[in-house]
Amino acid sequence: MPREDSSWDWDRKSRRYRGKDTGRYMSHGQVTNLRDKYTDARRTTIRSLVRETLPLNAKADPLSWNVGVRVLREKGWREVERSMIAQYTFGRGGTNAMTSADRVIVQQMLRDQKGYWDRFMMEALQSPDMSMEYAANRATMYADASTAFYERGRETAFDIRLPGHPGDGGTECLSRCRCSWEIVERKTKVEAIWHANGGDNVCDGCRGRAAQWSLLTFERVTEGT
Questions:
Q1: Residue 14 CB coordination number (10 Å)
Q2: 145 and which of 22, 47, 114, 175 could share a cystine (Cβ 3.0–4.6 Å)?
Q3: d(CA 26, CA 30)
Q4: Residue closest to 49 by CA, chosen among 129, 113, 117, 135
């Protein structure tokens, strides 16, 4: 995840990141790679937290399991929330680009995700056969869901509304999606292209989105028109 004090900056006019010293814009691939590296790092953090908090399985030590789940419900959610806010902020153009409207969007999205997280934690309390590894795998899906927050931030940066986002749960890969929207500002329009990233691992739903959303155009209202 890029940091505010790194060697790049957000260019408001082009709505892209560029090098502070070189002036060169980061490519779509470079930015998507940063998005995914951050997601992977957060997956590792959340998986480690689950392993540190829960015993091997609920059946072997139900008391420790129940105590651990209650701890994880709070500590785990804080890590998930941090991931999602950071990704939206990155997509939006950094902390300085965030507005009150962005914060409302983020809070609405977080509210939905918190509901899913709480249901997962309730399931963990009520499932005597759940293992720590299963819980860890489920928990990492919430780190993966931060991808959708990044893409929503990108959408908002360009002041457009896209029909779907990578990681929004609308395809077979659910939150594990690594596809991306490439959004380009033109003089009188904005163009958006869905890239099905992942080679042979791309699910059918994402392939369908790539075909259906190979080029979306959003016209800008210019002065004198």
A1: 11
A2: 175
A3: 6
A4: 135
